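Before the break, one more example. Copy the sequence into your notebook; we will annotate it together after we see the structure.
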Amino acid sequence: MKIRSSLAAVAAASIALFEVAQAHCYIYVSRKSVYVNGVDSGTFSGIRTPAYNGPPPYGFANGPVKDLDSIDMRCNVLGDQQVSHTIQVKPGDNVTMEWHHEARTATDDIIASSHHGPAMVYLSPDPPTDNSFVKIWEEGKFAEGEGPRAPGKWATTADIAANGGRMNVRIPKGLKAGFYLIRAEMIGLHEADASYQKNPIRGAQFYPNCVQVEVLGDGDVELPEGVSFPGAYKWDDPGVVYDVYCSTKTTTTAPCTTTYQIPGPTVWSGAWPDTPSVEVGAMTGATKVTSWDTWIVKSVITSASAGQVVGTSTYEAKWSSTYHAPTPTA
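Here is what the structure looks like once it is written out:
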């Protein structure tokens, strides 16, 4: 497949422009680092970072997944591609996943203030199979709004964003040693009053990201049967189609459902009942993305070098059934 010369010129010009203009390029509400018991594993370490959707400085890797039938629901775009490092953990360890919008700094806004919704964490053997994702943590709406059409307090905005973008979970007690994927997810419900299937310009926005971990120790607890991605969420699920502005003590329209049901399965009984936050130490690694040389638009991967487009190819997710060991991080 060859890229048209006009597109190549635009892409090359865009890359050159990046030298003088920084981009809005950090993964939207996506983890930049993972802390284990408060110790930073390093920016991007173990994280299957989603693909950029355009050349620098205009592309970004922070777009949501909206099609429930897409393989991107599993670990986002490029989620099938293993990264060259993993994070070592033990049963009982506290894992803190740090999400950011533009930069890994204290002043970053984490997630748009309108993007109210639930947050979940799943665990699966790596590589995943059908029905291998087990939910080990979730949080949805935890307080109703005070006024008419007030959105209430939600995991994404009133908890995670309010706490520096940090999402906490514990590795299940006695979990059998091996390689796993942590699938962490936030959902924006600000346009979820309509189904994306019926109205593609609206719909719930899903932000799944996966982290590669190796569980150490002599545990013998195996994960039970879980759910598949795609497949875990349905188009008519009440947690997928929901008017977030009904989350109030008093409503002005009818019908207006004030309760909210988090989509997907219930939390596994083998997960920790409580996941306390932990104090995190010093950050290690870069705070901003400086550039990128590949991007994906409508399944077409464009590659560039030194400001010039060098080729294109077609991307199709290919999940391996065999584990290929990456290099562990310290």
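Residues 62 and 192 are 18 Å apart (CA to CA). The domain at 5-328 is CATH 2.70.50.70 (Coagulation Factor XIII; Chain A, domain 1). Try to locate both features in your own notes.
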